Amino acid sequence: RVFKLADLGDICAVEGYMMKTKTGEITIRANRYVHLTKALRPLPDKFHGLQDPEDRRRKRYVDLIVNDDSREVAFMRPKIIRGIQNFMDKENFVEVETSILQPILGGANARPFITHHNALEQDFYLRIATELSLKRLIVGGMDRVYEIGRMFRNEGIDTTHNPEFTTMEAYQAFGDLSSMADLTERLIRYLAKNITRKSKIKWLGNEIDLDKPFKHATMNDLVKEKTGIDFKEVDTFERAKELAIEHHIEVENHFKWGHILNAFFEKYVEETLIQPTFVYGHPLDVSPLARKSADPRYTERFELFISTKEICNAFTELNDPLDQRERFEAQVLEKNNGSEE
C-alpha cells in the first residue's frame, strides 16, 4: 500500500535478492520496502527526461537524477582531473595554486567581475586567466608548472560558455610550440585510453579517432582550401576588406588585416574541423602575447580543434619587451576603436 502511494522522486530503501525479470532485466526481488523521503515535486518521467536546455543547466540536481548521460559526465570529470595530474606528474610538471583575486587584469581577452577589498580600500578582479601568475613562477625559477583552476568572465551564457569555468594552463621553460603540441596530443590520448579505455570516442555526434597522429595545418592554408583565397598574397588591409565585403563578413572599426583572416577562418573553416587538428599561424593582430614568426604578419601560436570546438590555445612566449610594448599600445587603440575585448 505504501509503495503504491509513492511518486517518482520519492526516496526508498529496498531489501531482497537479485533476480532477472521475464524480459531479462536485472532487478531486486523485494522482501522489505521502506519509504524514506517524500518528493513534494515529482520528477520528470524517465521516458521524457529533462529536455529543456535552460532547466538542465539551472537545475543540475534534476538533470543528474533523471539523465544518465549527465550523471556519467559528472562522475567522469574528477577522473579526468586525476588523469591530468597523473600525466603531468610523470612529465615533471609541478601543480600550483595561484590567487583568484588579482589587483590587475590580464592574461586573456575578457570582461571581468570586479570586487572590493575593504581593508586595502582597493578594487580587485576575479581572475580571467592564470597566465600572469604562472609566468611569474617561471621567472622565479620553476621550470615546469601547471594549474587547474576556476576562471570568471563577466560575459554571455550559452550551452558552451559559463561565467565560471575551469581551465588547465601549463608553462614550460626551454620548450617551444612543438613541445606544447606534443604534450597536448599525448595528454589527450592518455586520458582517453586510461579513462574511457578507448582510442576512438564519440563526441558531439562525431566519431573521433585518437589513434591517428593529429593533423597540423596553418590558418592561411585552411582558409585557402575552403575559399581559394591565399592571404599570403593579400598584402594590404584595403584588399582584405574588399574580400571580406564580397564574402559578407562584417568588418568592425578596430579590424586590421589579421582580424579579417581570422574572420574568414571562423566563418569557413571552424565548423569543418572534426578530427583533431592543430591550427597554426595566427595573425599578429589577434595574438598580442605570442612571438612573431619569420613572416611578421603571423605568430608562433596554435589552437587545437576537435569536433569543431577549440580545445586549447598555445604559443611561444613573446619575450621582447619593446615588441610587447608596441603590442600593448596597439591593444589600447583597438579598445578606443570599439573592441570590447
Question: Can you walk me through this structure?
Answer:
- The structure is a single chain.
- The chain is α+β, with helices and mostly antiparallel strands and 341 residues long.
- The chain is 34% helix and 24% strand.
- It is built from 10 helices and 14 strands.
- A hairpin with a 2-residue loop joins strand 9 and strand 10.
- Helix 4 (68-90) crosses helix 6 (177-196).
- The radius of gyration is 25 Å and the shape is globular.
Topology, please?
Elements: H1 2-5, E1 11-20, E2 26-37, H2 53-58, H3 60-66, H4 68-90, E3 94-95, E4 101-102, E5 114-117, E6 122-126, H5 131-139, E7 144-152, E8 164-172, H6 177-196, E9 200-203, E10 206-209, E11 215-218, H7 219-227, H8 237-246, H9 257-268, E12 277-280, E13 301-306, E14 309-315, H10 321-336
Parallel strand pairs: 3-7, 11-12
Antiparallel strand pairs: 1-2, 4-6, 5-6, 7-8, 9-10, 12-13, 13-14
Strand order of the largest sheet: 11-12-13-14
Spans of at least 5 consecutive residues with low confidence: none
The succession of helices and strands, N to C, reads: HEEHHHEEEEHEEHEEEHHHEEEH
Q: What is the number of beta strands? A: 14
What is the mean predicted local confidence, pLDDT? 92
Indicate the radius of gyration in whole angstroms.
Answer: 25 Å
Number of helical elements: 10
- Major sheet attributes: 4 strands, mixed
Estimated share of beta-strand residues: 15-25%
- Helix content percent band: 25-40%
The end-to-end span amounts to: 62 Å
Question: Which structural class should the secondary elements be placed in?
Answer: alpha+beta
From the spread of the alpha carbons, the general shape counts as globular
